[in-house]
Amino acid sequence: MSLLEVNGLKLRFHSLDGPVEPLNGINFQLEKGEVLGLVGETGCGKSITAKSVIKLISYSGGEIINGSIIFDHEDLLNKSEKEMQKIRGAKISLISQDPMTSLDPVYRVGDQIIEAIQVHKKLNYKEAKKKAVELMRLMGIPLPEKVFYQYPHELSGGMKQRIVIAIALSCDPALVIADEPTTALDVTIQAQIIDLFSKLKEQFQSAFLLITHDLGVVAQMCDSVAIMYAGNIVEKGPVRKIFHSPKHPYTKGLLQCIPKMDRKQKKLNAIPGTVPHPRNFPTGCRFYPRCQHTMKKCLSQQPGLFEIDDERFVACFRYFKNSDGEQE
Amino acid sequence: MNDTILNVKNLTKFFPIMGGVIRHKIGEVKAVNNISFNLKKGDTIGIVGESGCGKSTVARLILNLIKPTGGEVIFQGQNIFSFSRGEMRKIRKKMQMIFQDPYSAFDPRFTAFESLSEIFVIQKMENVNIKEEVFRLLKIVGLKPEHSDYYPYELSGGQKQRIVIARAIALNPELIILDEPTSALDVSVQSQILNLLQDMQHKFDLTYLFISHDLSVINYFCDKIMVMYLGKIVEKASREDLFQKPLHPYTKALISSIFTPDPDKRLIIVPLEGDVPSPIHLPSGCVFHTRCKFASKICCEEEPELANATQGHYVACHHFKKIQKKQN
User: Fold this and answer.
1) Is residue B268 part of a domain?
2) Which of A216, A239, A257 lies nearest to residue B260, judging by beta carbons?
3) What does pTM read for this prediction?
4) In contact, B62 and B74? CB cutoff 8 Å
5) CA–CA distance from B75 to each of A63, B62, B81 (Å)?
6) Is residue B230 part of a domain?
7) Distance (Å) from the alpha carbon of A122 to chain B's nearest alpha carbon
8) Nearest to A155, CA basis, from A116, A197, A113, A214
9) What is the pLDDT of residues B194-226, one digit of tens each?
């Protein structure tokens, strides 16, 4: 049994122009201690997938209309808000993109870590403070006893993100959801944070759901990858397979878009067109207007995820085999 | 010297910090500190650095959008800081800028047509058939005439950036300053825009000053690269030299924090310690010595000059000869 199983997740947002359904039945699993990268461009639905997993989506105006989210043998969709509050922060925690806005500007950072600890654990202030300082030291914060008494505005972006990570890990969660944890940071700071994650991964044995648009970060950190496009997972599998032999035309395009460091290219490969808006997703395969291999079938039918080899799934008709084993 | 289009000499900009009871000057932000470089016609030179290193201030100084504290910018043989506003408006036809954020580059109440036609009105070009000209520009950047009726909110980020480019090339400029032109865009759109910029350069014989924090984009796009740190140029070299034989420890650190999208090439990250110091209280001597592993006594006391290491390769480091020896 996997730690987290998301099955057929569908969402609905109500807007003035009628309902929008940005997710089209998302399925994925996450094992204990695994790092799964959820990758895609703006508007593909990766952040709302993450918010749905901890049932925070209703605060953004969304509603889960279908599917199940099995975490640790229990379906989170059957839980009440009160039960969810006991899970959030203790068993599943969230690191959001922007460390500048996820800390409260009027409280000392140390007290914010303590708050997270005391909500879930029966520790008095002194014990909690000891744990907080120890966590800050683990996060590579220099002089944690001093930083404990500082306010968020006194810290740099990288330091703030370390505090946010300390809060997320304060109760040894089984699952950490990190939504673009390094996007707002400079490259050298990003390298520090990714380095920190790799160390924490071994120490805490938490599973990570890493949401990002940066394929470099995924290659660096993840065990497996799920590529999202327009509300669907179009390809998923172990990180090596996806990066070395991408199958879905979108994955291929995405990997070719990145400028290579080791050689001078004459021209970059680009995927023509743009990501469609959830209101006017094309019928059939949602990628076909940008795809070079469009077949007749793609215009009318939507391909489901299909296992093409061990642990690798692709949602593309080019890899579907009919009953004779021939490729269509 | 004839083909030099832009000559920047000892350019310096200190922003005053006002405070106290009578709002007097209590300090300075040393944003750009004595930098010099040449730009030849048809070249693409890149400026790379982390946030706060002064790269955008350089761009604004070159366009005379802010007044410098010292130094000269000589564009086609004339010092632009000696110009009156009227003269500056004429010269701005020849030097254009493309900003980072296409979302805020437009008046939300103007259609694309109005935004583009405004240029010809401002520059008092009465003999131009504005409608034809706008359609011609849209075609050049890969958009259709019907896009001219769209409002900014109806266009995607990539389409908006295409219109920004159309606006920049409208008056046949010689020099275009690109300030992070793709960092607000998704990777698949980024490669479209980079390709478009390259086509424009060949077609119209443009000179680019390309500012970015993304080394892989800089590596793809630029012939010559300058690395900035805290308002200073720390290394200046051709693309090959900079990436294959980086001499400054900061450049080395930047290059080693690039994540290649290849899971087999996971870096053993040697992250740079600490954060960028505040530009208000610059470290004494070499500005990088607080984070540098090669730092010795001389680094804290004396500021290194930008010295010629090999043909066309300049570096500001006391220890570059030692580093060079190690490489050979």
Assistant:
1) yes
2) A216
3) 0.86
4) no
5) 58, 9, 10
6) no
7) 35
8) A113
9) 999 999 999 999 999 999 988 889 999 999 999
